[in-house]
Amino acid sequence: MNLDATDLRLLELLQTDADLSNQDLAERALTSPATALRRVRRLVDAGVIEGRVALINQAALGAGAGLTVLVEVTLDRQGAEHLDAFEARAVAEVAVRQLYRVSPGPDFMLTLQVADMPAYHALVQRLFTQDANVRNVKAFFSVKRAKFDTRVALPQPAAAPR
Fold it and tell me: Model-level pTM?
């Protein structure tokens, strides 16, 4: 999909604040409300915008932030069916917030969010220990989140021909 400067401005604005009214979005994107609405719908229909969400501050809920765990997982057998099977099980776990197949090194990198160490231990039993194909698990416990950003780096608009 070819994105022009207006599309890119709309995307940048929505990444920063998806709660903007169409009127405010259009004003900040330097376009009309009708154009902004039409363009955003086109970006959604094309799959460029996957969805809009609210980012929740877990600590503000009063439950504490829990534990954030970054985990490397290496499987014994790396055939497509084995990778797909582990991936499907991991994706089904609510505590798995992000899952990446990586190379080289481990087969997967996971970001987990659990309430506490007993919850982490239960997840380890379900997802890693009971899977005979999991060869190695290396967990790193976050002690501080220094940065968290959901924005995607957008391309620069093409320069106008001279």
Answer: 0.81
